[in-house]
From TrEMBL:
Keyword Glycoprotein: no
Domain of life assignment: Bacteria
Lineage: Bacteria, Pseudomonadati, Bdellovibrionota, Oligoflexia, Silvanigrellales
Gene: rpsO
Single Gene Ontology BP annotation: translation
Protein's recorded name: Small ribosomal subunit protein uS15
Length: 89
């Protein structure tokens, strides 16, 4: 199940850095986190969905790369974002 348009709009509104921002690093990480959380719930029910699990690992890897970039460019923004999204690190 994909993120609905309303959920996506809420996430973008919450994490954007300026009024017309839809693709900043913070927004991308928040959207990936929402997708990862949905897929994690999916795998609790469908444990043998190995193809989907491969996609999940790709999303986690992409999020990790974006988090590393954000940490290099904006340490305080990184700390704030992981606290808001409850990402362990």
């Amino acid at each position: 199940m994909q993120i609905t348009v309303e959920q996506r709009a809420e996430i973008i509104a919450k994490f954007r850095t300026h009024e017309s921002d839809t693709g900043s690093t913070e927004v991308q990480i928040a959207l990936l986190t929402a997708r990862i959380n949905q897929l994690t719930e999916h795998f609790r029910v469908h444990a043998k969905d190995y193809a989907g699990r491969r996609g999940l690992l790709a999303l986690v890897s992409q999020r990790r790369s974006l988090l590393d970039y954000l940490k290099r460019k904006n340490e305080s923004g990184y700390q704030k974002l992981i606290a808001e999204l409850s990402i362990r690190r």
